[in-house]
TrEMBL record:
Catalyzed reactions: 2'-deoxyribonucleotide-(2'-deoxyribose 5'-phosphate)-2'-deoxyribonucleotide-DNA = a 3'-end 2'-deoxyribonucleotide-(2,3-dehydro-2,3-deoxyribose 5'-phosphate)-DNA + a 5'-end 5'-phospho-2'-deoxyribonucleoside-DNA + H(+)
Chain sites annotated for binding [4Fe-4S] cluster: C189, C196, C199, C205
Cross-referenced NCBIfam families: nth
HAMAP family (alphabetical): Nth
MF annotations from Gene Ontology: class I DNA-(apurinic or apyrimidinic site) endonuclease activity
Alphabetical list of CDD domains matching this protein: ENDO3c
Gene3D superfamilies, per the entry: Helix-hairpin-Helix base-excision DNA repair enzymes (C-terminal) (1.10.1670.10), Hypothetical protein, domain 2 (1.10.340.30)
EC number: 4.2.99.18
Protein name per its UniProtKB record: Endonuclease III
Cofactor details (free text): Binds 1 [4Fe-4S] cluster.
Organism: Virgibacillus xinjiangensis
Biological role: DNA repair enzyme that has both DNA N-glycosylase activity and AP-lyase activity. The DNA N-glycosylase activity releases various damaged pyrimidines from DNA by cleaving the N-glycosidic bond, leaving an AP (apurinic/apyrimidinic) site. The AP-lyase activity cleaves the phosphodiester bond 3' to the AP site by a beta-elimination, leaving a 3'-terminal unsaturated sugar and a product with a terminal 5'-phosphate.
Amino acid sequence: MLNKKQIRYCLDTMKKMFPEAKGELNHSNPFELVIAVLLSAQCTDALVNRVTEDLFKKYKTPEDYLSVSLEELQQDIRSIGLYRTKAKNIRKLCQVLLDDYNGEVPRTKAELMKLAGVGRKTANVVASIAFNEPAIAVDTHVERVSKRLGICRWKDSVTEVEETLMIKVPREEWSETHHRMIFFGRYHCKARNPNCPECPLLDLCREGKKRMKRAEEN
DNA sequence: AACTCGGGGCA
DNA sequence: TGCCCAGAGTT
């Protein structure tokens, strides 16, 4: 298991590799952030951005999403996977925002997770990025990278990965940590063919060393 | 823990 | 063509 100093080195290195790693879902508007992250489930961020560019011009408020038919909203997000379910969830979510939250987006993880279509990851992203609440969003990239490097254990659940990161990463870096690890995971430490031979973190990477050794034997 | 939803991107 | 993708909900 990596210690705090080693983890800091990892995060600094990731920043050097992807200095532009800002996170494309970094909307200043909490409501738009909820919608964007909800839509992003199981599809690429580039696709979501393409759709939300037009979507957010047409729909500004929860009322706007409820003012059209379900079919019309589905058409507007048709190019995104799971669009039927997501359109239904957006309508449910907007209705709850109006009924229970005066049209505003709630700030805490617990409240966010009660919204339709908002699970652990979306709730964490919105709470941490939009409201700077204490949370680290662990998606598949963050989980994979954490486990390969040895920041956490292989068998850890998503909750355990989350807890470990919150303990070992300074509070003020939680939000940025999310984006750095996602870029690192998406473009370098990929699920299928991680670029271990050219990885600057190979020396301290548990999984990387294992893979290099295995490749050498073949 | 395992399954389903699902169109687009990429090899 | 076949496989995967910045997940959530249900069983």
